[in-house]
Amino acid sequence: MSSRWSDRLRRTLGFRLALWYAIIFVVSSLAVTALTYVLLASSLEQRDREIVENSLAEYARAYRESLQWTLDPANRAAAIAQLAAEFSLAPELAESTYTALADRSDGLFPDARIDVPGIRAVLALRVEAGLLPDPPPDPAKYYKES
After folding, report:
1. Do 101 and 75 form a contact (C-beta atoms < 8 A)?
2. Mean per-residue pLDDT for 106-124?
């Protein structure tokens, strides 16, 4: 008896319209939710990228300034004292460390440029140690020229 009633109900125009309306409503609600999610995620990703790029630019600027200060011969004594204090080094060791860091040919790069051959050497060592597949990735993957 109840199956006849439900069969008759399914055949009525009102029931069919209500069912179609419900299906359309659910599908459009899901579409609006998905669209909102995609737009919001895209907006947040773009904002986060800008924040990270600005922070990196600021860090790079500060690093270059600190390099200029560190490598300035007028600041040699202060830089050696800073090394000794920060790393608990004996004054002689701090001085030899500073001398190695300030070496123009093998120390810190005054312009903070990227040492691409150095990156290649590190990648080759990582391949040799089995930490990266052979051939290693392109070094340009790890830095951005600015």
Report:
1. no
2. 85
